[in-house]
Amino acid sequence: MTYWTKIQTLGFVTIPHNVSRLLGKRDQLRIQRENVMLIVRDYNNIIMKIEDKEKALFKEHMENLDRAIEPGIRRINWSMNADPFVLSCKRECQDVFKKVKIFQKNQQKIKEELERISTATLTQIQENLYHLKEFVKEQEDALKVKEKEFSKSFGRIQTKMMKTYELFL
Q: CA-to-CA distance for 66 and 25, rounded, in angstroms?
């Protein structure tokens, strides 16, 4: 438009009235473009954060997010004030992003607990001679300690699973 206005002063081209009106709203359009880009960036962050295995789990959340964004694509035009819509969409995107992060964090904690359980040694053998009764007693004591640790790990896994489940209610 800047070049068109320069060319128009030389008399080579005439700028249509509608285009001139758009030029007058340049700052408003720039702001709306930035608002749209905020939503696009948030949406793309969610898409990039979700791993391939998790896409099916978050399909419903993404469909709801698409439904929230869809009116902006169909109904809102450049002459309208879209600030309430932008804020609403950003809030929706942030909610879904937070759920993805919580899910991934819970999955990581569960993996750590399972790794701790899988690498646990269930016996405690020292380098000295044992009588059979002493050996059996020491192994039973070691198993009782491990049983308490396993119970705590199970409780932590169960808590994380329930928190993860709540994301999909």
A: 29
Given a contact cutoff of 8 angstroms between Cβ atoms, the answer to whether 97 and 49 are in contact is yes
How many alpha carbons fall within 13 Å on the CB side of residue 138? 12
In this predicted model, what pLDDT tens digit does every residue of 56-78 receive, in sequence order?
Answer: 999 999 999 999 998 887 877 66
The Cβ-side half-sphere exposure at 82, using a 13 Å CA radius, reads 26
Model pTM greater than 0.85? no
Q: How far apart are CA 88 and CA 157, in angstroms?
A: 34
**Cα dist. 89→40, 82, 92 in Å?**
10, 11, 5
- Closest C-alpha among 49, 40, 31 to residue 69: 40
From residue 84, how far is each of 27, 32, 60, 99 by CA, in Å?
18, 12, 24, 23
- Tens-digit pLDDT profile for residues 7-34: 878 877 777 777 777 777 788 878 888 8
